[in-house]
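Weekly structure sync - notes
Attendees: PM, LS, DV (DV joined late)
Agenda: review two folding runs queued last week.

Item 1: First target. Sequence and structure tokens pasted below for the record.
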Amino acid sequence: MIKILLFAGLAEQAGTQSITVDDEKTTTDRIKAYLKETYQLQGIERAMIAVNEEYKRGESDVMSGDTVAFIPPVSGG
């Protein structure tokens, strides 16, 4: 099982801050596509991705037991 954490506007759009998927192995790109299709998350393409509290760039492998966080850009003043 892989735990997915959503923050700020992404959590609001999905209606939850935490989602689990029952995969043994996948990638951050597949998770992103799943979230975009299932929850119609706008702006997920611009979100920073962290796997087990380590920021990742590009596609990364994700294994069962991992936690993946999607953190959208922050704006404000």
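Item 2: Second target, run right after the first with the same settings.
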Amino acid sequence: MKRICVFAGSNPGVNPAFEQIAQELGRELVARELDLVYGGSNMGLMGRVANSVLAGGGKAIGIMPTGLFRGEIVHTGLTELHEVTTMHERKAMMNDLSDGFIALPGGYGTFEEIFEVVSWGQIGIHTKPIGLLNVDGYYTPLMEMVNHATAAGFIPVMQGELILCESDPAVLLDKMRDYTPPVKTNKWSELTEK
């Protein structure tokens, strides 16, 4: 792995641990000589992880649609900033530039981004590791929902392994480094394998 895409809230959240872990993740990326790929904002947890990477002498690559420049306040001190037209282009470029994905706490946008890359992994568009930084149990309900969907027959058991979930950035990055994608299985329960 050379580059990690980080999805994160454009707000800092109310728990100080969110900001602390975002900064810790940034330091851990630098220590491992991993470049950051992210949404390009200097706001919220997005800005905290980027600033931590840059303060440590690492590379931070931002990708932002022109229409969000004002709302998210584009980070002007990045190693690289790619301006795109749409959110679809943003996510496609994030995928193309990255060797793995990590989600810090965030809202709708973060949920959508992480589930999109999980869905892409499920159908074989990529085999990159996907991790959730479970700060103070933030992603525990999401993992419970994944387990519930698996038990209900909507997610094949093996594909539950597509998401790595840890509370410590170093442990998560170790697991991502050692990640082996689950064996590709038929995701459609009504089709028989031939």
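Discussion on item 2: The chain has a mean pLDDT of 93.
Action: LS to circulate a short write-up before next sync.
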